[in-house]
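Lecture 7 notes: from sequence to structure.

We start with a single chain of 381 residues. Read the sequence below before looking at the structure.
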Amino acid sequence: MTFKKFLGQLHLILGLMTGLVVFIVSITGCIYAFEHEIQEISQPYRWVKEKGTQMLPPSKIKEIALEATDGMLVRRIYYEHPETSAIALHYADDAPYYYLTFIDQYTGEVLKVKNLEKDFFTIILYLHISLLLPYGKEIIGVSTLLFLVLLISGLYLWFPRNKNKKAVRQKFKIKWKASWRRQNYDLHSVLGFYTCWILIFSAITGLVWSFEWFEKSYYYLLSGGEHLKKSELQSKVEEGASINTPMVDRVWQKVLADDPEILGITIYLPISPEEVITTYSSPDYGTYGRLDWRYFDQFTMEEYPALDFRGRHEDATVAQKIMKLNYDIHTGGMLGLAGKFLMFFASLISASLPVTGFLLWRGRSKKKRQKSSHRQEKIYS
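Now the structure, written as tokens:
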């Protein structure tokens, strides 16, 4: 068996093994591509009119959110833009709720309390990352890893044996006037070739979230041999101390004062005396590549340096900036709306590859059975 035949068999086996998962992940990624834009249009409670007055501080937003939800634990507060509502995120490790409270950040009016368990895009997201199954994240991770092998092997198989100009040109276009089997082959081969360059990056950035060993290996390669460290920061707690809520407001004010270009800021509220106050802010709306992550002691307001890539953007190395861009690369948001369209069509084609691949395998299997039966007829005739 030649290497190309072996690779063809491997490509077939891995395709049959992962086809259904790749289809689900791709089609949900396709639907989720414009989640941000669709929600902005369809959910008017996300928008407020900038009043030219001071925004309400996190402690006040938390107080309003607690009252609106009968005391549901508030874990984060988002100020995404001067013209959007502040959002309180409610969830608990041992409770079945996962809610958002939308609040006018200038007047304090509660605009919407939303149960994300019933939210369309939340369901699509969890289908994308876990198939809504126990151990679904692991299944997605393994399938994505095999899909990466499929893309690389498919790229190798695409290269024509015949190097004359006509044969090479045919590899770049679909022969629409040919039989449906030929069209199916071209849809799999030609579209697969065009999109594999995008899907390889999509698979790699997806694997960064799937496996810690992959994230560490990826960073090691990007940084030229530097090991990825995890930030495990704690506040300096004195005996008998309780959560220092007013300090959250002071941290919020400091972060805003330090950088006048900030459009949005998110506050992670500490729920124990040991936790630090974590914030991330950005000069951009809707993308996450230039986030500034900062960490403060909730009692002394001492700022701690980040140990991993989640730190100040201006201090980040090239490898750390690439890691910060991981989400924007994965979604295409790095290139703006054009990048999202690109990722939308790439995901759509990715969803078609298991289908055209299956039809290709089924057609060839049927053809082999027909040839085998013809041979047997000749022997016994």
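The longest strand covers residues 74-79. Keep this in mind for problem set 3.
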